[in-house]
Amino acid sequence: MPDMPAFATCDLCDAHKNDSTGAFRVLPPVFRDFGALRRFSGAVVTVKCFEDNSLVKAAVDSPGEGRVLVVDGAASLRRALLGGNLGAAAARNGWAGVVIDGCVRDVVELVACQVGIRALAPMPLPTEKRGEGQRDVAVQIQGVWVRPGDWLYADEDGMVVMAAPA
Q1: Are 51 and 79 in contact (CB under 8 A)?
Q2: 130 near 62, Cβ under 8 Å?
Q3: Residue range 4-45, pLDDT digits in tens
Q4: Exposure of 165 by Cβ count < 10 A (0-12 exposed, 13-18 middle, 19+ buried)?
Q5: Which of 128, 94, 95, 122 is nearest to 109 (CA)?
């Protein structure tokens, strides 16, 4: 089991609550935990896709290097963008976490994956693989801008995004 990250989102919010530059952002409390790790952090890699998880699969199949994959799934509740196989791949390949503005499936399998996984809801229906989407672009997650290279911190109190590591 990896060491617990030495941060608290509440402390980060206390330190940056008066930030008016937009460099510090808080994601709304609409995400649920699905992975084994409740606390995770890392540099952000982004994927933007709609009901097609081709680029999510390509990302988690690549070396994660302790980064966090942030997926703009347009908050779709109709298809799952990550399931047990991809959750296991994310853990195996060294991703710190996966945050999905959309759904996941195989919830029982995901809870065993040693990676942080946050998403809106479970949905058993998989996506179609059409090879569509974009990687490494600025995305809007629940109205909050997240850019490649930002830092995301997630713990039991929520998730924050910063332009640089804390």
Answers
A1: yes
A2: no
A3: 568 999 999 999 999 999 999 999 999 999 999 999 999 999
A4: exposed
A5: 122
